[in-house]
Design a protein that fits this description.
191 residues, alpha/beta, 6-stranded parallel sheet, 7 helices, 6 strands, 41% helix, globular
């Protein structure tokens, strides 16, 4: 089974998840009741987080992020994170919650940031954007398979091609990568 942990492609044949959440870009106009109503049916709360490269005031982003982390904790749901130029703040806020699982989608941080996240038990997801940055490639290579996911996000590149590229960059077989992501998926979403 090929897992695509974060995709906008509704016609994919990969294993995906249903999420509900308020993206930080929309924190100013957020209706948290929609997340609360949808949380029971969703597999995860997401894509939520902080994006300090956008124009939405940081305080508003942090408020809605905290509220959604509290919902994820209450409903015992994993979270899928959007984190842009806000790694330290996200890591600090996550400490206040007991979450089923944390998945950094589209991780583009450094090796050191990847290691810190993994040390906390968090998962990192990599996709096509990873290939644009040597720093992100090294972070992906340093992430243990036990904490790694693959995603297509908004890319039109088939998820199978992204798996192929990541497997090549890690020097492993596609089967080994697929088995690892399937195991991670099962651990989080079938337990």
């Amino acid at each position: 089974m090929i897992v695509d942990i974060h995709t906008h492609n509704t016609s994919t044949r990969a294993q995906t998840i249903d999420t509900v959440g308020i993206h930080p870009w929309y924190a100013s106009t957020a209706d948290l009741s929609l997340v609360e109503r949808g949380a029971t049916a969703a597999n995860a709360i997401g894509e939520i987080g902080l994006d300090f490269a956008c124009d939405v005031p940081r305080e508003e982003q942090e408020d809605i992020f905290r509220a959604q982390l509290a919902l994820a904790e209450r409903f015992e749901k994993p979270v899928v994170l959007h984190c842009v130029r806000a790694f330290e703040q996200v890591m600090q806020l996550l400490k206040d919650y007991s979450l089923k699982a944390v998945i950094f989608h589209g991780f583009i941080g450094s090796v050191e940031q990847a290691q810190r996240a993994v040390k906390q038990g968090y998962y990192l997801s990599f996709g096509e954007r990873t290939f644009r940055s040597p720093k992100s490639i090294e972070a992906m290579r340093s992430t243990p398979l036990s904490h790694l996911f693959v995603e297509s996000d908004e890319s039109t590149t088939p998820i199978e091609e992204i798996y192929t590229k990541i497997a090549e960059l890690r020097g492993i077989s596609i089967a080994e990568l697929t088995t690892a992501t399937e195991k991670n998926f099962t651990l989080i979403f079938n337990s």
